[in-house]
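Quick one - first record:
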Amino acid sequence: MASTRKSPMFASSVSRQLLIGRIFTYAALCVAVLLVLFPIYWMVITSLKLPREIYRVPSLWPQVVTFNNYRILIEDKEFFLNIRNSLIVAGSVTVISVIISSLCAYSLVRFRYRFQGLVGRLILFAYLTPTTLLFIPLSILMARLGLGNSLHGLILVYLTFSLPLSTWLLQGYFRGVPRELEEQGMIDGLSRMGALIRIVIPLSAPGIAAVAIFTFTGAWNELLLALVLITSESQRTAPLALNYLITSDVLPWGPLMAGAVLSSVPLMILYFVAQRYMVQGMTAGSVKG
């Protein structure tokens, strides 16, 4: 009888705890969403404000909505040219890096040769080397090769940090592909390269897509190497063009925020289109086959 009397009270207590836990969960999610979205919201509304309103008491909505900041960037600063340069550089780096790193990662995973482990560690150490230690030697090298102040030179320099990371990440994805599938394909007449192209790469597509997105994002946002190598206005990338908007101690927040909004659009579109591959790719190499 005592246990029968306690059961409704016990069930009520459990349901109350579940309700409290759910409330705290949703509250934490709302706070997290607010922390993530508020800087984006502030960036957008600042780009729509007049200069006198930006430097006054901050407000959550512009009193007068203006697109003059965007006009200054597009017409006076030719910012679309800088975005085009960023697209060329980031797109080229992504394609070249994915192709070369796929071959390199596959060789490290499937082949056995002397100093294989050392090569893999050197690739990781190359990525971990700080950029501040490399930009002077790289700038001298590009100048001697006649590739200074050019997008071609910038692409080659960006490959120095994108290739090691892509190779290291793709090793995990390729290890998740069973070796037996390749052996069966080669029994059916495929070459080693054919097995890579027709079996390994399709099965590792989510991981390759995730690596490509990481590579594109890193090349798109990079500033230090571009600041050292590029001097011509026509060759500036989007982050570099925004950096040159700052003169002395004057910060034109309106054009800066407008440029940040325009620079974020390609990345937002890319992540929106490839979000499914991002989720799959981040877990694809976590379990060995």
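second record:
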Amino acid sequence: MNIIFLTLVYPELEFDSNLYSDLFDQIVELGHNVTVIKPDETRVYGKCYTHQRNNVKIYALPTGKLTKTNLIIKGINTLLIDFRYLHLIKKNKLSFDAMMYSTPPITFTKCIKYAKTHNKTTFLLLKDIFPQNCVDLGIFHRKGFLYRYFRFKEVELYKYSKIIGCMSPANMEYLVQNNNVSNQDVCIIPNSLLPKDTIRNGNNDILDKYQIPCDVLKLIYGGNLGKPQGISFLIDCLLALKDRKDLFITIVGSGTEYKKIEKCITKNKLDNVYLIPALNKTEYINLLSIMDIGLIFLDHRFTIPNFPSRILDYMDCSLPVYACTDKVSDIKHEICSQGAGFWSESNDIKSFITTINSIVEHKDCLPKMGAISRKLLIEQYNVKSISRLIIDQLEAN
């Protein structure tokens, strides 16, 4: 089977990886051909570069900035990306049996319609429910033009997608209840990765490099630092723990709220918090290997169930998870209630402190919980089984 995958993010270097590269590397191993189209944000015009990565052919198409730029430039380039991708497909006469794509963005409808008119299977990997997430965060208003425009594009996206893969049971339930997807094959396709042979260690060199004490509870948050993560609550948690000598919190990532966290740490002289800009995958995994517990933060206002992919790296490194999320996220059911971690609502500071105190008191239980976390990853979020599930869906349609 020949598969085209449209995406905004795909690693080009073989030693780097993300959930998409793990997935399509495995699909190639199953005997299928994969072509990836991704943006080259460093250029607005010019030649489209192509190269191979683990037998996946990658087209890097000049698009201009889609991230880390102002809203006007980001908006224009995001709207143009659909035209540019479709032009590339036609110009290069790319042959395919199935077209796969993920959200964000929701603006691939011209490409999807093209695939549908040529009787190709269209498969959406639903990673983001937009624009409702912006309504939840107060960025869009339901009566506003932007919401109505993007809601129209979202409805189109679902309409022309033959298969829709949702991240979790709650995610799928939300989609079905709030959208007319009766003619689609809606299924659960969890985020997944290829489990690695990560060794837990207490490497003093890593501890020294990042100024982390060795004899305390070591917590880490890794990932995006933006509005969806409810950074105001994260800051409240840091301030509530500022005088604690029995724990240390490491924050790794980038995003619009990075400076806000940095300012808080400096202003309040938080000696038990260390903020690190985003690391490459190898360095990040090495850092996770010396931690005791991984943190997840999501804004408490969300009405859409999210399942952040960053949780998988924690599980791969045998870390228990402490998730501070909205009430509708099923992380608390799918992960935490299985004995692999803890959960609090992300506006309940008292619950957070109580849970932290309990974790410190029962620190000896964390390795057992970490083993359960790793076992769940292997059994439920292993890319080897998820890739077969995707191929089964494609062949059935």
